[in-house]
Amino acid sequence: MEFKDKVVLVTGSAQGIGKTAAIAFAREGGIVVLNDVNKELLNETEREVEKIGAKCLSVVANTAVLSEVEGMFNRVVEQFGRLDVLVNNAGITRNGFIHKMTEQQWRQVIDVNLTGVFFCLQSAAKIMRNAGRGRIINISSAARFGNMGQVNYSASKAGVVGLTRTAARELASKNVLVNAISPGPINTEMLQAVPEKALQKILAPIPLNRVGEPEELCNLILFLASEKASYITGQVINCDGGWFMA
């Protein structure tokens, strides 16, 4: 039970990667704080976590709204007295080519995928600095290198990398480790909506010639959150089937 009695907050945990990560932490004994804006789906995740027998707290909050983020982290401290791990996973897409993208599409994605990540990281850092330990894992994306029709998403995920590296430098002296994971295409609801022809184009440059499963990505999340990764900080780790090889 790697995370027995550790308090783990996973944003965007109503579905996809976030849900899988929350359940994985629960199976490893963690006290899981679930977060999303979709209350109905969040309740489903909560029921699955409770079936495992893990303690959990569900908080409906928009991570792009500072007051809601601060309220969520305050609830965590009030109820559990600590926060050991933050998985900054919440994210959205609003795709469109540059010449067609609206201001709303741009702002919505930047607000959730970058500003929201900062708000949660900032609140977690305040708690973890005082505790003298902690793990923060930010979810970036292979799209950070640029992806047609996703200028807003690509910009936000590239921004997460800079945020991660800066936070890692600032928090290292307090034993708070900050890393990012850069997934390639993962078999979630978001990818399942992609037409087959477009999916084949996505798979073409991937040496493993397949999409990843959420559980494969979550194995990396659990590793970075564990004591096994105690000398790793400020890193961006690709989990993409070999798509981008350094």
Per-chain topology:
Layout: E1 7-10, H1 16-27, E2 31-36, H2 39-52, E3 56-60, H3 66-80, E4 85-88, H4 103-131, E5 134-139, H5 151-171, E6 176-183, H6 189-192, H7 196-203, H8 214-225, E7 236-239
Descriptive report:
This protein is of the alpha/beta class. The chain contains 8 helices and 7 strands, in the order βαβαβαβαβαβαααβ. It starts with 6 loop residues before the first strand and ends in a 7-residue tail after the last strand. The protein is globular and about 50 Å long. α4 runs parallel beside α5. The longest helix is centred in the middle third of the chain and has 29 residues, at 103-131. The protein has one domain (7-234): NAD(P)-binding Rossmann-like Domain (Rossmann fold). It has a 7-stranded parallel beta sheet, with helices on both faces. It has helices at residues 16-27, 39-52, 66-80, 103-131, 151-171, 189-192, 196-203, 214-225; strands at residues 7-10, 31-36, 56-60, 85-88, 134-139, 176-183, 236-239.
The CATH architecture: 3-Layer(aba) Sandwich
Structural class: alpha/beta
Put simply, the count of helices is 8
Portion in helices: 40-55%
What share of the residues does DSSP label as strand, in percent? 15-25%
